[in-house]
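A reminder before we start the practical. When you read a complex entry, don't treat the lines as separate problems. The point of joint prediction is that each chain is placed relative to the others, so the output describes one connected object in space. Small molecules and nucleic acid strands, if listed, are placed in the same frame. In the example below there are two entries. Take a minute to note the order of the lines before looking further.
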Amino acid sequence: MIPFRAQIMAVVMAVTIFGFTFYLVRKKKLKEEYSVLWLLMTILLVIFALWSRLLLLLTRLLGMFNINSTIFFFGFVFVILTLLHFSVKLSKSAEGEKNMAQKIALLEYTIKELKNSIAREKKMKNGYK
Amino acid sequence: MKNYNKILVIIPAYNEEKNISQVINKLRKDATFVDYILVNDASTDNTAEVARNMRVPVISLPINLGIGGAVQTGFKYAIENDYDIAIQVDGDGQHDTSQIPKLIKPIEEGSADIVIGSRYIKNSGYKTPIMRRIGIAFFSWLTSIICHQRITDSTSGFRALNKKAVDFFAREYPVDFPDTESLILLHRAGFTIKEIPVTMNQRLRGASSINLFKSIYYPYKSLLGILVGLLRKK
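Here is the predicted structure of the whole assembly.
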């Protein structure tokens, strides 16, 4: 079984992270979309901390030696999935950034051309006066 | 030739202030029948100023996108301005612009959608470091197999494309590893690729963008790109 103190630690950790995530979303420093993952993680943490039999069951089911391994295993899985999630987001945002940079460059070029042609036209008109 | 094609030469350039004037002067002498545009890939030197002073139209990217992103900007410009043919010429003076007519001939005849200027069809005397030569040979071999067609210089950046191919690339272009992957992409989309022999010069001045780290990372990344590209749906 999990020692009582460890249980308390886990719950306090979970509540803190939960609260902090919530705070960040409220302050609009974190998008709701990203908060889902974190909130879910803290809820799972609380469940496993309080209901240690579930953890034990899971450990047997996975054929692990002890509970610690199970916790570390899922911790790692979570971190890896999070990183993958970020990589996906980063790729998408890089693509958007590229397209935007290209658009800006093309627009800037067009604007300069337009300005020049307007200036030329003005010069022509003034010349005829 | 009765109906003239509108031809655009795209010159991607990153920190080429020392080479660019020579490239432009040569281009002006060699190919009087083309328009050109310089895509300045957020250079930190005076590339853009040098080009503007020579009255070359310059599109300046706000951030550095790498050669793929710069070239694609040129393709987008070509589509916006209704060009029939786009030619890609590196800003470092390696590509011999006097061979542009040869390069666009298959496109004008309608026998190819994209024409690559190859260094290796016949021995042009172009000296490549041995490791890079092996790399080029490997990727050309791989491209040849995938495209069911002999490609000798898949990494060559001296290319001409017709409107259909440009339009395709303006929408979808593998900016991370443009050379080889773009050929495979074109092949899978049903475009016709043709290679013609060209001679190339050594870089005029300055260092190539490929350093030791890149020379290891680049092949790895491109190989991955190709393999993943093959798995992708058509």
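Discuss with your neighbour: The CA atoms of residues 5 and 33 of chain A lie 33 Å apart. What might explain this?
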